[in-house]
Amino acid sequence: MNDRRMFLTLSMLLAANTAVPAMAEDADAKPHMRMMNSLPPDAPKVALMVYPNMVALDLIGPMTVFKIARFDVQLVWKDKMPVSTDVGIPIGATQTFDTCPRDLDILFVPGGIIGTTDCMNDPDVCAFLADRGARAKWVTSVCTGGLMLGAAGLLNGYDATAHWAVADLLPLMGARHVDKRVVKDRNRITAGGVTAGIDFALTMVADMKGEELARRIQLVIEYAPEPPFHNGTPAEAGPVRTDAMRQSRKWMDEQARKAAEQARVRLGLAT
User: Cα(121)–Cα(135) distance, rounded to whole angstroms?
Assistant: First the structure.
């Protein structure tokens, strides 16, 4: 009986000793979490477009950087029904085209060649991008999202880039293709394929809130790429592997070309 009482007493003491630090940690964590979930009064207004058949990583990389920077991030589409993505994870908009703020600090479009082509041919999408892009402080894209900006008439006369496989279509819509990972021309910032989205977002934060904040965010997400192969660009991959990749996506890229040519006519750029 005495042994049982002693066991119960020790158990209670052990529970008390472990519970107090946990409660203290929780108390310390709550103010930090409240700060991260709240927005400063001057938080930049950011509209990230989502759409069916988009590439999720095009969105998630920049979105992560912007959220850590405590920007006011909204996902925008025609309605709030979740859209499909390349990895099978549906993503729902938080704002519709109608409710999205008219004056934005950043308008951003991710990529995904099939979804991009559909959007380039969609008058509602092009009208929304043209309207918000005309007033946004920054008009931006990653990957094939640059083609959408072009189709909306937002890259005419600007240096720009997009995914390497379709970046040559940008001049059809009035842009000057520059073969760089991130291209900045006045208030347009466009980036190459998928992973370039993180580079773009860090560049964006540095421009808007200072390099120190961008450096801190880069450290937080431990962004220090060391790819196992030097194969991320056509120059690194070589002509044989690049040509094989082009052949594998020939039909998709041809649909994008047709959409770019139609946009060229619609924008009055055709000769």
Answer: 22
What gap in Å lies between CA 87 and CA 84, rounded to an integer?
A: 8
Longest dimension (CA), the chain: 99
CB-based contact 140:106 (threshold 8 Å): yes
* Cα–Cα distance measured from residue 168 to residue 200, given in angstroms and rounded to the nearest whole number: 20
Residue pair 59/110 in contact by the 8 Å Cβ criterion: yes
Query: In the Cβ-directed half-sphere of 160, how many Cα atoms lie within 13 Å?
Result: 34
Cα 109–257–114 angle (5° rounding)?
50
Q: Residues 167, 161: contact at Cβ < 8 Å?
A: yes
> Which residues are identified as catalytic?
143
Name the phi and psi angles at 264, rounded to 5: -60, -45
- The string of pLDDT tens digits covering residues 46-88 is 999 999 999 999 999 999 999 999 999 999 999 999 999 999 9
The helix/strand/coil state of 12 is helix
| Residues 46, 70 contacting (CB under 8 angstroms) | no
Residues 6+ apart with CB under 8 A from 253: 113, 165, 166, 246
Global confidence as pTM = 0.86
pLDDT digits (tens, 9 = 90+) for 236-249: 999 999 999 999 99
